[in-house]
Design goal:
Layout lengths: L39 H8 L11 H4 L2 H11 L16 E3 L7 E6 L5 E5 L6 E5 H9 L26 E3 L5 H28 L30 H14 L12 H14 L4 H8 L15 H14 L12 H16 L5
Antiparallel strand pairs: 1-2, 2-5, 3-4
Helix pairs in contact: 3-5, 5-10, 7-8
Length: 343
């Protein structure tokens, strides 16, 4: 009687008990190109130096701090370059129990919850980022707007039940440098830019990274302080790469994606366990046993710190933050605290 419900055996498919990823068929994976390790630090301190600003006494204005921060997220935190463009100002805090280091949280651009105080009842409430963007700013999540400079892609990542993931720094100095750059960026760059924007009648928004210059003539839809666009970041990154004498292209590993590839390559060279690599790169697909072995955030950090301690004598594709970055960190901190211009 139920013969009409029988499936055609030739059309039946059996799902594997193992998750092999998005597509397990086809040719094997090819080695990816990654950013040259010997040039990473030059990119930060020569490539991201602002042309014509050599005499500027404020280091947060002498360098393109915004792109330095994104470079740290990509090369030392394993981000895809568009992921950082979804960040809000509040997504960076000081690491609990580790003074002077950044804890960076990446939230799902529309589904993650935001806590806020209701102006009428005074009670603490929660709403999704999509709801907050719409109600408070009249905006949509950037990945849901498919056209224009406001759009920023979102490929998806391994998130926890709160729709969040954490940056796991490849080098602790990178976390300390990011925190110092973040403080200086808010004080000397983003705050003045957004004040200028509001004076011109522009709308407010919570996105951390913003455009810093007046738009080109004829571009009536753009305004200083707009959320930083992927296209603008790509152009600035390419200019920084060329500034240190390198060609910019996928074949050379010098694109923004090459920074993320360098992060993954380093973890592999350090013999970090596959579960930690998956967590560091925020990949969702792995063998089915992974849900039972995925480490906590604290365990991931402990593994990376242990690997960093073992790296002496190893040849790794991205070296630890070197003397130049350590000296810059010290001087940036001194400038923030005392305004000392000897930087």
């Amino acid at each position: 009687m139920l013969q009409h419900l029988k499936a055609d055996p030739e059309r039946m498919t059996v799902r594997s008990a193992i998750d092999w990823g998005a597509n397990a068929s086809g040719p094997g994976a090819e080695p990816v190109k990654f950013f040259p390790p010997s040039e990473m630090e030059r990119l930060f301190w020569e490539g991201y130096a602002r042309p014509g600003m050599e005499s500027e006494t404020n280091p947060f204005l002498r360098f393109n701090v915004r792109d330095q921060m994104i470079g740290l997220l990509d090369g030392y935190g394993g981000f895809r370059h568009c992921e950082g463009l979804h960040m809000w100002v509040q997504d960076v805090v000081e690491e609990p129990g580790k003074s002077g280091h950044a804890l960076v949280v990446i939230n799902h651009p529309s589904e993650a919850l935001v806590s806020f105080r209701d102006p009428i009842s005074g009670r603490e409430k929660k709403a999704t980022r999509e709801e907050v963007l719409n109600r408070r700013y009249g905006l949509r999540p950037r990945h849901l707007v498919k056209r224009g400079r406001y759009h920023a892609g979102w490929k998806g990542m391994d998130l926890n039940r709160d729709k969040q993931a954490f940056v796991h720094w490849l080098d602790e100095t990178a976390g300390a440098l990011f925190w110092m750059l973040y403080l200086g960026y808010l004080r000397f760059v983003r705050t003045p830019v957004m004040e200028q924007r509001r004076a011109l009648g522009g709308y407010d928004h919570p996105f951390l990274f913003v455009s810093e210059r007046e738009p080109r003539r004829g571009d009536s839809n753009a305004m200083v302080g707009d959320p930083y666009s992927p296209e603008a970041h790509e152009r600035n990154h390419e200019a920084a790469v060329r500034r240190i004498g390198l060609k910019c292209g996928k074949a050379y590993g010098t694109t923004t994606q090459g920074m993320r590839h360098a992060y993954g390559q380093t973890l592999m060279e350090l013999s970090v366990p596959p579960q930690v690599i998956k967590k560091g790169l925020h990949h969702r697909h792995f063998l089915s046993q992974v849900p039972y072995t995925v480490p906590t955030r604290e365990a991931v950090n402990a593994q990376l710190n242990a690997a960093h301690a073992r790296r002496e004598g190893l040849q790794v594709p991205v070296p630890p933050m070197g003397h130049e970055s350590s000296q810059a960190l010290f001087k940036l901190h001194r400038f923030i605290v005392s305004g000392d211009i000897d930087v």
